[in-house]
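Run log // design_07
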């Protein structure tokens, strides 16, 4: 199933989460600090496959203060070409994207659209981990006003909930890292975001060979139990 048809299906069922899709992962060898080698990437993909994932969105970090879109896209392509000969038919499909760190006025950056997830107009945005200044608020709202780009907030659970709820009011979609759904005190809020259709995607955000995929099935069961209660 293509990412486009997954998105269309989600539009029909706003609260549905597709657990065969990992929307946020750092699995391209040498492209960023997510995988230091082909072997690491192969282990990551094997773990994803074991967790029932059919599609992985490879989203290396894009830092606008360190990279140009041209150099990033070239590095990502070379990294993917290193990996692709070793992929077999039963492996998850890999789609190329980016995790773009927001900076002031990024909505005006040349070729920003080229950082959207392959086959979509969705741009995975990493917000800052310090108090968001007014310029960052302006930037995310301007980005949301662009007709050709749909921002998706990466690991939305990491930011102050009051900030995220302001973005929700603007219709901005969220991506959650799957492990947040196992956190006993905070997960009720995340479940309600899912139930209300604010969470478009879940991601592993895997770096190296961490435990991200081990909890994938536990999270699937927890979300299904919550949404069907
Ligand atoms: Fe990430």
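design_07 sequence
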């Amino acid at each position: 199933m293509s990412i486009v048809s997954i998105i269309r299906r989600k539009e029909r069922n706003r609260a549905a989460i597709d657990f065969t899709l990992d929307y946020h992962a750092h699995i391209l060898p040498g492209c960023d600090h997510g995988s230091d080698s082909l072997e690491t990437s192969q282990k990551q993909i094997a773990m994803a496959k074991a967790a029932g994932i059919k599609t992985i969105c490879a989203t290396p970090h894009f830092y606008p203060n360190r990279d140009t879109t041209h150099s990033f896209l070239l590095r990502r392509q070379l990294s993917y070409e290193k990996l692709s000969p070793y992929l077999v038919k039963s492996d998850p499909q890999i789609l190329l994207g980016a995790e773009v760190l927001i900076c002031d006025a990024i909505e005006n950056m040349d070729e920003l659209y080229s950082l959207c997830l392959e086959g979509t107009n969705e741009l995975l945005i990493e917000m800052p981990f310090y108090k968001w200044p007014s310029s960052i608020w302006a930037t995310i709202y301007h980005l949301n006003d662009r007709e050709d780009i749909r921002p998706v907030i990466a690991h939305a659970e990491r930011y102050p909930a009051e900030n995220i709820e302001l973005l929700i009011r603007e219709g901005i979609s969220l991506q959650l890292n799957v492990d947040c759904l196992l956190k006993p005190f905070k997960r009720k809020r995340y479940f309600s975001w899912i139930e209300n259709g604010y969470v478009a995607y879940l991601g592993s955000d895997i770096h190296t060979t961490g435990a991200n995929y081990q909890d994938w099935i536990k999270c699937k069961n927890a979300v299904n139990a919550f949404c069907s209660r």
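The two ends are 28 Å apart (CA to CA).
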